[in-house]
């Protein structure tokens, strides 16, 4: 189910949000020059107090994150949906988060696949159209630094041919683990695509610092390998800065990006490594990101703030308004 506002409702929401943030309604409406309509959301759990506060600050949606967000029954999720709708909030997604479908323990893999199915059914109850999934992670072996990656891979299998220029022998275990994880992710999600189709909920993959698919073309190859509209990409704008500029990810993924997490990252002065920062305080070129997202072919796009918890609700709303306005 898509979340849509007619012009009258949108103008009313804009005016209310502007009053709460000190931002002029005209500033919020400058986003009308863009083709892609963006909606404002946060991560959290359903409650009357939360919905009331978020609505007052100008937010329109929630991506459920935490316990018991994805673990509840469809019936209980439907109750949360009704509560959200009371305040004009859309529960647009469910964060399933980390799983380990690459585990050597077949029983553990089966349990994780079952948990993803549970999340899909909960999402249907919420009226959400995506679950955010990090299928697996790897580590515990030598891995190139973010700025050292120079990946070549087989486009048919997704298997890595190299991860750095020159000698790759130090990274043989990493390459093996990466290939195993790619295969395992394909196997697990292929089993879940029928459930996604039945529930009407997209499995949106995020590769959040799990040492997998760290370059845009590699991640795109994974998503397209399913050949299904029920597997797409959830792009976290700040998580990927240390590997490649956000605009490169956006251009490469194109309309495979179904939703975005809004996060910032401040690179070190040498461009190598850094730290997370409040949105608009980091290295992300937000006006450029806004323009690039407008070209991927999405009519609508949820923009969900993750992090920046030290800022007030009103301040987060104001900064997200500026991003959506292309400022």
Helix % is 25-40%
Strand content: 15-25%
- By CATH reckoning, the class would read Alpha Beta
Please state the structural category. Answer: alpha/beta
**Poorly predicted tracts of residues:** 1-31
Count of individual domains: 1
Biggest sheet features: 8 strands, parallel, barrel
Distance between the termini: 30 Å
Structure description:
This protein has helices spanning 7-21, 25-29, 48-57, 74-86, 106-126, 172-199, 216-225, 246-253, 286-293, 313-324; strands spanning 37-44, 61-64, 90-98, 130-134, 152-153, 160-162, 202-205, 231-236, 257-262, 264-267, 274-277, 300-305. The chain has an eight-stranded parallel beta barrel, surrounded by six helices. Strands 5-6 form a two-stranded antiparallel sheet. The protein has a two-stranded antiparallel sheet with strand order 10-11. With 327 residues, the protein is α/β, with parallel strands linked by helices. The chain has one domain (7-324): Divalent-metal-dependent TIM barrel enzymes (TIM Barrel, Alpha-Beta Barrel), CATH 3.20.20.150. α8 (246-253) runs parallel beside α9.
